[in-house]
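Sequence and structure are no longer studied apart. To make this concrete, we show below a single chain and its fold as tokens.
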Amino acid sequence: MTSPRPSRRTDFTVALICALPIEFDAVALAFDETWPGNQFGKASGDYNAYTLGRMGSQNTVLVLLHKMGKSSAATFLCGVCGGVPNPSRDVEIRLGDVIISENVVQYDYGRQYPSKFAHKTTVSDTLGMPVKKIRSFLAHLKTDFGLSELRDQIPNMMEQIQRKAVANGHWSKYLRPGSHADVLFRANYLHRHQHKRDCSCGKETVCDEAINASCADLQCDPAYYVLRRRLSSRIQEKSGRQATSDTSKSPPEVFLGTVGSGDTVMKSGEHRDMMAQQHGIIAFEMEGAGVWDEIPCIIVKSVCDYADSHKNKKWQGFAAMAAASATKAVLDMPTAPTAPTAPIATTTVSHTTETPSPAFIVPYNENPDFVGRSEILERVKDLFGHSDTYHRPGSRPRSRVALHGLGGVGKTQIALAYCYWFKERFQDASVFWIHASNVERFQKAFSDIARECEVPGHSKDEVDILLLVKKWLENKQRGRWLLVIDNADDTEVFFPVKPIVEADCRATSIGHSIPECSHGSVLITTRNKQAGLKLGLGKPPIEVEKMTESETTQLLRTLLEDESVTPAEASLLSSRLENLPLALAQATSFILENSISIKEYVGLLDKSDSSMFDHLSEPFEAVGRDTETPHALTATWAISFKHIEKQKPMASDVLYLMSFFDRQAIPKQFIWDYCHETLENALYSDDDSELGEDSENDFQIDTDLEVTQALGFLQAFSFISKAGDDLFDMHRLVQLVTRKQLADRGAMSDFATKALKIVRKVFPLGTHENRVLSLQLLPHALAVLEHSEVTIEKPLREDAWLSREVGEYFYRRRQYEAAKHFLRAADLYSKLFGPEHDTTLTVLCDLAHTYMRIDRTEEALELALKLLEADQRLRPKDTATILTDKRLTANALASLGRFGEAEPLYLEVWSNRKEILGEEHPSTLTAVDGVASLYKSTGRLKEAQELSTGTVELSKRVMGEEHPATWKRMRRLSKIYTEQGNYDQAEPLVLETLEARSRVLGESHPDTISSLKDLCDIYCQMGRVEEKQRMDRRVLEAEWADWSM
């Protein structure tokens, strides 16, 4: 059937635009009729190629894009695009699927590799809303009926195009490649030379040759494939679900969502996923933003690659044909957006010029207790251009500003204060308030606005109230207005990214129902930074942090109506409550109700963690708090926990884990270890056994991505914050509330054990060489040990080991805490292995040495005798261990002044070790040390000097001049010389020891400080005052440095 050729430009109702010849060819085959020539001509400078014809009932012009001009026809951009493989957890896009744009975002980053960026570095705002006819069509398409109508027609159109292609001699140009050709690599696995040495390819770089090579040429590793559920019929069969058809022949799926448009090709998987997550993008292409600048259009494209470095052209033909088929199917639908074929008579509508009276629809009274936050308020004024002094060269006022921060930090109160300031400042302006915690409340708020403001048409049946109010607000006759969107925490409420077969028409329109115009301002409050970034059109939200000390003092004075509250009292309370205004308001409510002082209330908080939790869970009344939002701080955070659990379960588990570490400087490595083990266990668990023995070749654990997303999510909700390179801080109260959540679920022991094992894995042996790392990890070790005492149900080896190593760290720093940890380790080992196990007795020996060092000598002697008795009974042939016990006993006796009992033990140990091991063995030298120390303590200085001189010489030769034992022997000999008044002989020994310790151990080490003090004593005895004063200063500086560590 032929149709008459149009005689006017306006007879063409549809414009189809293609950018690539292969796209153009596929669409041309979809035409039912074409008309040669172009009697209408082209404008000067127009280099586009046009084909005129009919597609279905529509007169259509097909354009091979060069440069866009204005058009009155309904415009479709048709062709191929790069798909986002998994825009959300439950959504999987595969090659050949059809993408239809709901809106377009210009990310404009240029060619993007992990280490190659184009010149532009910022993300543009969303490119406006589609025109009404397109919006109406998209609304129809999101219904089950509309979708079914479209999907049923696409295979028919594909068959028609394929028949024409074959008739034209193109047998295979548009055939669908097999499922084996649909390959997705991990986002961070780069398409580069894997084994070639003479090129510039590296872990983050790609040479020009590799860019143009195939995966087969580069030998890209199949081990980095990502398992695709829709492609794997094998998985379906193993899990008991029989595949209904060959996936290689199944029709394309259709997805509706945001399309990202840039000036060059997206070729980085990591950048693809980052942009997709940030803007809710489901596909990437290059022409949409440029076309949209001139003509609002619908993008209908098919996925030919995954927008990563592994892209190739295998799927371009089929994708071009699928897009053309989908476009033709769209045009066959009764609701297809087309232009009228002739001028339409217009009806003049009389609009009143009278300025409408301003509306103020805010559910809260002004808060008389609001204080501070002046910097944030001024920042909001400046960004909106509401300030009298507004002047920001090179930028225009924003139409949207988001406030984000931890629940209870005061975002809603700031927004409320801004509403009343705005009302006073612009008395002819309107103010509206929207509760956005869910779709229903958002819609209700719009309905309230429509009813109270008597928006025309609001009472009609089947009216789209969101669209109605949006257009009403965007009308310039409304004048200036401010719209507050409060509690916009859940991105799924505004930007659900699902296949349109599952999408809720009502829900998907929420994010696009927010009005956008030059005379309106939208202020958003959210706990979720990611939501704030999206709702703020890509502009960074303002972070609302904790109050300053001066603000908390002012707030407490206002809430308590007591100007006598001192800064010290305010600091006492606010420091316990992390300077959070909601917690402070809750505290003052309790203080007033019970007529107690701030100090008494702090005493109640300090009783225990559970006591603090109970007080923070007390409900109370406050101005500016939503009736459906819990007022207690703990309940407020519970809402955030639920959002996190729903949207990112791994992030909630990470939050639970972090609550058992010290709250400051939590290493990212802890989180990586946990996530990796969790993912690995999930991959190889029995629940996933249906994946089969070969599944590890199909799926690789992307721990880095999981960690990045989990930590990013927790930062977005302000539960954690960056504290430096790969370090994170966590609010103390957040830790407390998080652990209480676990306790209520009976999961405390599980996560406490995981945290303990992670720290035990990385905590180093308590040697001097590991002192810096030990110091960094010590707070976390102490934290997990503290929690293990009360939460872990049975003793763990990790607990005992970590307790001992922490004790070793304190012992080497001569700190009393060592005894507590050795005692705990001994108790745990006793429960694990028995009271007389080798390991248990060894730790008891450590404890005895600690008691000696901290002057608990009686207890040390008691332990030493107990160890000696046990070893003689249990291992009578273990001479070395028994001699060690005897020497420990002798040390304790000598320290108590019981030299007569100690001497025979020292001599026995020396004699036995010399006989068994020889005079130069380190253990023999240690035995001599005991005898020499005894002689020194009993005034037998000549004998002590003779023995010490010999051990110093032997120690230097046998153990080395820089061995700690050599330094101790040199120090003892210098002390003997000093007691004899031989300062000239003592000084060089002390100087030599000091220089070696300072060089090897550092100036602030306790042993170095001991040598400094020895030198001070010698200079004092010798009357060398200036040198003594210089040494005194070194001692003070070293001790300060040691204390500060």
User: Anything to note?
Assistant: The longest strand covers residues 74-83. DSSP finds 41 helices and 18 strands in the chain. The radius of gyration is 38 Å. The longest helix spans residues 144-167.
